[in-house]
Specification:
heterodimer, A: 457 residues, alpha/beta, Rossmann fold, 2 domains, 4-stranded antiparallel β-sheet, 14 helices, B: 301 residues, alpha+beta, 3-methyladenine DNA Glycosylase II, Chain A, domain 3, Alpha-Beta Plaits, 3 domains, two-stranded antiparallel sheet, 8 strands
Amino acid sequence: MSKRSFAIGGVHPHDNKIARDCRIEALPLPPTVYLSVAQHIGAPSVPVVAPGDKVKVGQVIAEPGGFVSAYIHSSVSGTVKSVGPRADLAGRPVTHIEIAVEGDEWLEGIDTTDTLVTEIPADNKAIIEKVRQAGVVGLGGATFPTHVKLSPPPGSKCERVIINGCECEPYLTSDFRVLLEKGEQVVVGAAILSQVMGNVPCTIAIEENKPEAIAHIREVIAKLGFGCVDVMELKMRYPQGSEKQLIDAVMHRQVGSGGLPISVGAVVQNVGTALAVYDAVQKNKPLVDNVITVTGECFPKQANLQVRVGTPFTYIADCLGGVPADAAKAISGGPMMGKAIANLEASTVKGTSALLFLSEKQTRRAPETACIRCGKCADACPMGLEPFLLQKLSRSQDVEALEANAAQDCIECGCCLFSCPAHIPLLDIIRTGKGLALGAIRARAAAAKAAAEAAKK
Amino acid sequence: MTNTIIWTIAIITVLGVLLALVLFLVAKKFRVEEDPRIDEVEKVMPGANCGGCGFAGCRAFAEAAVKAPNLDDNYCPVGGNDVMAKVAAILGYEVKAKAPQVAVVRCNGTCEARPRLNEYDGFASCAVKAALYSGDTGCSYGCLGCGDCVAACSFGALSMDPATGLPVVDEEKCTACGACAKACPKRIIELRPKGPRGMREYVSCVNRDKGPVAKRACANACIGCGLCAKTCTHEAIVMEGNIAYIDPAKCKLCRECEAVCPTGAIHGVNFPKPLDKDAVKARIAERKKKAAEAAKEAAHE
C-alpha cells in the first residue's frame, strides 16, 4: 500500500533532526520558575495563590477563567514570590506566578513511579473531568484545552481519533523521543482518548522519516493488545502535522472553511497530549512538565529534555553550555512555525516544543524582489489559497476581498514564504490581512448576536 | 484610388452621425437625475481624496453632505473651517467652526533613551512587527519605527528622524486627516487641537506599565507619578492607567506640568521662549506656601 499524505500543497524542507539520537533527560530544577497564566488558547487563568504561599508540585495555582481555559499547576515545590506582569517571549507583559524552588515535594495522590497502568477506568465523564483538572492542553502548538476538544458539541459524532506523531517541523525530535521512550504510555493514552470519544478506532500517524518509532509503536500495540489503536505511516511532507492536513492524509476528508475537525468526524491530538492524558488519568499527574528539544547546528549540545513548565529559557541554555556566540536567533518551536524569542529571560509554557538556535547565515533574509507570478506559492499552499493575491490585498487592506479570498483560512504554515523565489515575505504580510479578515468576521458575528438579543427583548 | 478614399470618409462620417444620434437619444432617455449641488460641493472640496472625513473621497463626501440633514457628522479636516463654510453656504446649512487640529506623536523613546534589546530583521512594517512581538526595545507601547505612518500620509507631512528613530510631523503640511493615527498599530499618534499660535502641551508617552518598569525600558517614559496632575491648577490632567493625559480643552498652557515632570515626558511646543524650569518651580513653591499659610490662618480662625 502506498503511503498517504494530504492532497494539495506542502513543501519538503530538510528535516535536520540532529537531536534524534539524544535520549530524554530530566533537566535539573531551576532556582525559580515563572508560570504564565496565558499558556493556552482561550481566557487566561485566574491565579489563586498569593505571595508567601507554600506550594507543592501539582498544586493548583490558577483556575480556568472561562469554559475554554485551563487549570495551571505549580510545576515545582517552593514559595510563591510574586504574582504580576512579566514579559513573555514576545516581550509582551503577561501575568506570571513566580515560585522560588525549595526541594521537590509532590502533592499526595500523584503517582510518580514508572509503573505502566493499562487498566482504563470505565467512566468517560470522570476521565474528561480528570483531564480538565490536570490542566491538559493540546501540545502540538495550538494549546487548545483538551477537555473542550473531548466534549464535542451535541449532534456531532466522532468516527476516528488521530494521534499526531508527524512532527513535520524540521529540527524537532521531542515527539519522536516520546514515541520511542514512552511509547507504552502514549498507546494507553491513545486508547483512553478512543474510549472517551465513543470506542472509535484510533490512528497514530507517524511520518516515514521515523521508522524506529513506527516499528516500536507497532510492537507496543501488539504487546499491550489494544485492538482499537493502529499505526499509519505517512509520507514526509510539511505541514502534515497541521490538523486539517492530517485529517486529509489519514481519512481523506476535508474540513471546510471555518469548520472544526469534528465536523468530518475526526479528533486530532498530539503525541505529547496523549502522554499528558495518560499521566492525568492513570497517574493523577497534572501537566507540569513537557519534553523540549534543544537544538541547532550552532548549539554545542543537542538534547531532548524533560522540562518543568515555567523554566526560563536562559536557564535551559545555561545548563547546556550557554547561548552560543554565533547564534543570531533563538526560536521557540520549529523553524517553520516557531516564534522568535525576543526575550530569552521568558520562561517555557505548556506548549513549548523546542528551543532552537539558528546562526546568522541560516536566518539571513534575501532582499525582496518583484513578484514574477510564477505561482509557486499557490502550488505550495496546503489550504489552496493564493498567497500572491492575498499579500497584495493585505498591503492595500482590502478587507472584503481578503475575506472573499479566504485569508482567514491561512494556517500560517509558511510554505508560501519558503517557496517564493522572489523572497517576498508573504506570510508576514498575509498575517496582517488574516487579522483584518478575522476581525471583520468577528465584528459581524458580534453584531448579529447583539441584533438577535435585541430582537428577543 | 480617390474613389476609395471618398467612400471611406463618407461611410465613416455617416456612421459617426448616426451613432452620435443614438448616443444622444440614449443619454436623454437614461439620464440619471443627480442633485446639482453635489457637483458644486465637490468643486469647493480640496480634492485630496485622502479619506480623512471618513468617506472614500471628496465626491463621496459631497454626496453624503448633500443627503445629510445637517453637517454635524460631516467635516472635512483637510479643508478646515474655510471649506466647510463654503459647503454650508451651498447647502444652506450652518456649520460649527472646529479648532484646527494636528497630528501629535506621543512617544519620545529616542534611540538613546530606549536601548534596543533585540534586532528586528523582518518585513519593514509596523503592522507586521506589532503582530509578531512587542518591539525591539523594552517598551511594548512605544513607536516601532518602521514608518507605517509615513507611508500612510498622503500630504508628505511625516518623516522618520534617523537620529531619534521616531516620526516627525511637519505642522505646515499636516491636515489632520488622521490617516497616520489609523495606520499606527500602537495608537501613538493623536489628533490634537493646534492651540493658539500652535502652542500646545502634551504627554509624549503612552506606556501603561508601572513606573519602575516603564523607566527601565525608556528614560523618557511617563512613569505615572502624578506630579503633573497634582500641580495643575486647571484640572486639565487626568491619570489613566499609569499615564498622564492633558485635556487640550482645559489646558491653559501655563507649562507648570512640563516643569515638574521628572522624566521630561511632557512636551510643550511652539512657545516663544524656552521653558525656565527653575522659575516655574519657584512660582509653584510660592503658590503652595501661600496656600498653606492661608489654610493655617483659616484653621486658626
